[in-house]
Structure formats: C-alpha cells, structure tokens
Design goal:
heterodimer, A: alpha+beta, Ribosomal Protein L25, Chain P, RNA Polymerase Alpha Subunit, Chain A, domain 2, 2 domains, six-stranded mixed β-barrel, 4 helices, disordered C terminus, B: alpha+beta, four-stranded antiparallel beta sheet, 7 strands, 27% strand
Chain lengths: 214, 143
C-alpha cells in the first residue's frame, strides 16, 4: 500500500490562542511518541481531512513537518470534532518506531450482501464498530473488512474468531465477540417492552406527583 | 414514561444550561442520530412521544437508542396560589439538553426510513435539531 503523506507546519500559538488558527482554516495538532518530545503542529484543514479519510485511526502516515530533516511515521491517535459543526478541531498524532508494536483501534467495514437480509428479511446489526489490534507499524491496515455474504440464515453471526486476519496482526478483542448478526425483525420489539417493564414499577414507587393536575 | 427509580433529594434548583454539550455529542451506537441544536428541558412525555414516533415509523425494523434520560424533577405551584408556602410539587421529569447532545440513535434500517423516523421524532421535541450520521475514517485509499 502506498504511504499516505501529510504536510504540517510548526505551531507557535498554544492554549486558547489556537482559536485564531481555526478561524483561518487551520487545524492545530500535536505529535508525540516514545523517545521524542511533543511537537505542536498545524495543518491545512483540507489536506488533513483528506489524509484522515484515507488513513483512519490505524494506517501509518508520513508526516513532513516544515523545518525538520526527516518525516515522522505517525498514526492518528485522537481526533476532536466540533460537537455541532462537526469540523475537525484538533488532532493527536503518535510517532511510531518501526521496531515497536503499537495498539490501535481499526474500523470494521461490512462488505457484501447477506442472503438472510436480502431474501429472508432479517435485520443486520453490527455490534462491534472497531477492533483493537496490535502490530508493527508497517503491518497496520486502515480497515478490516467483514464479508457478510455467508450469513444465510436469520440468527447467523460473525465473531472475531471467524475473521481472516494476517498473522502479523494480533486482535485483542475476545475471540467470541460478535461483530455482526442477523436478527428477526420482530425481535426488535424487545427493547421497547424492556423499557416499559423497567419504568412501570418505578412509577409505582415515585409516581404520586407524576400526573398533572389542573 | 421514563423517570428515576429513586432520588436522594426530591426537588432541585433550576440550574443553568450554558455552553455546548461535550459528552454524549457523538454517535456511539447506531448509524444515524438526532442532535439537539438548542438548550432545553426535554420532558419525559416529549421523549416518550418522540420514541413512539420512531418505533411506529420503523415498524419493528432496525434498532433505536434513547440517549437522554429525564432525571431532573421540575416543580410548579398550583394555579391561583399565593406566593410563599414553600416550593411547589414535582409536576414532571425532564432531561437537561444542551446543544450538541445526541437525543436518539437508529441502526439497521435504510437511509430514508431512518431520516423520516428521526424527522417525525423531531416534531415531538421543543427544540431545533439536526439529523446526523456516524463519522467514519479510513479505507478510502483504494491503493
């Protein structure tokens, strides 16, 4: 896989002053890692978003910081968003050593079509959105694909142990953890019933002031 | 309707709803979410009405999550009562919602069904909201 490249500039503004950067379409960030001092950096928003879309939280990125001799090999360790506008407000990048393993979360992507959903009308529920893996930096992958075309019956599921993962990657999740499952449509009534069941005895305990009296 | 099982103190001060929500502001369970854009007390009745709107539209398909809980007792005095004589009785329970809070999440239904269900739920709420989907990074390289 071709290395993902990203450019950054050293950052002098810190603390609350980084608001000024965000107004200029610049995202503040920091690079840290084993045996290196933290380096405050800043990115062009579009370039950062592009690299982030490709790399996710688990693929390595070649980060070239202006004024430094060699690029850092990094992963996106944390991405902060504005709660409403949803733009990127800050990123943490972890510099990696080629000889040390690293633990990262990897997004799980569902591919293919399940006969149980297409033909039998089941509901596909993805219960694990990401897996925790440990690997050397060069063995990291952006996503782990789960092929659901083998889910032929309602009730079928795919667990971590069923995945075809290269030997260079260690998955830290429990092998019996379910990733995707096809369930009955009617089974989805259960949460509603559960809510009612929990609430009603409560109402009996605290209810006297609940009903509005004109 | 939702309400706490037991409370340490029966009545609370009104409090303030300044700023934006920093927790509970990202989609954590489903694929689509309804996000608050204004601060408000959302009553248990409103939460239940919105929840029913979602359930009815989804017709048992998919799954939904209610991400807020009405744990604040709201008191009021009876009509035509003179001031004084202590704080009023608890009338209803409300969730304190600040801008950014994810109110409901949905998964396991097609895009159009999820949007319509959340749109119907939004009509039951006293605030402006927006429908958002999960942010996912990674895997767009294709190399």
């Amino acid at each position: 896989m071709k290395a993902i490249e990203l450019r950054a500039q050293p950052r002098t503004l810190t603390g609350k002053h980084v608001k000024l950067l965000r107004r200029q379409d610049v995202v503040p960030g920091v690079v840290y890692g084993h045996n290196i001092d933290p380096v405050p950096v800043q990115f062009n928003t579009k370039e950062l978003a592009h690299a982030l879309k490709r790399a996710g939280s688990s693929a390595t990125v070649q980060l070239a910081v202006e004024g430094t001799a060699s690029p850092y090999l990094v992963i996106f360790r944390d991405v902060q968003h504005h709660p409403i506008r949803r733009g990127i407000t800050h990123v943490d990048l972890q510099a990696l050593s080629l000889t040390e393993t690293v633990r990262v979360p990897v997004n799980v992507v569902v591919v293919g079509k399940s006969p149980a959903v297409e033909v039998l009308g089941g509901v596909l529920l993805q219960t694990l959105m990401e897996l925790e893996i440990e690997a050397l930096p060069m063995d990291l992958v952006p996503v782990i694909e789960v092929d659901i075309s083998g889910l032929a019956e309602i009730g079928d599921s795919i667990s971590v142990a069923d995945l075809d993962i290269p030997e260079t990657i260690t998955v830290l999740n429990a092998p019996d953890a379910t990733i995707v499952q096809v369930t009955f449509q009617a089974a989805e009534e259960a949460p509603t019933a559960a809510v009612e069941a929990v609430v009603e005895p409560v109402a009996a305990v605290v209810a006297p002031e609940d009903e509005r009296k004109p | 309707m939702l309400m706490p099982k037991r409370m340490k103190y029966r009545k609370q001060h009104r409090g303030r709803m300044t700023g934006m929500e920093s927790r509970g502001a990202e989609i954590d369970f489903g694929d689509y979410g309804l996000q608050a854009l204004e601060p408000a007390w959302v009553s248990a009745r409103q939460i239940e009405a919105a929840r029913r709107a979602i359930v009815r539209h989804m017709r048992r398909r998919g799954r939904y999550w209610v991400r807020i809980f009405p744990d604040k007792p709201i008191t009021s005095k009876p009509a035509e009562t003179r001031m004084g004589k202590g704080k009023g009785d608890v009338e209803y329970w409300a969730a304190v919602v600040r801008p950014g809070r994810i109110l409901f999440e949905i998964a396991g239904v097609p895009d159009d069904v999820a949007h319509e269900a959340l749109n119907l739920a939004a009509f039951k709420l006293p605030i402006r909201t927006q429908i958002i989907s999960r942010i996912e990074y990674g895997g767009e390289a294709g190399e």
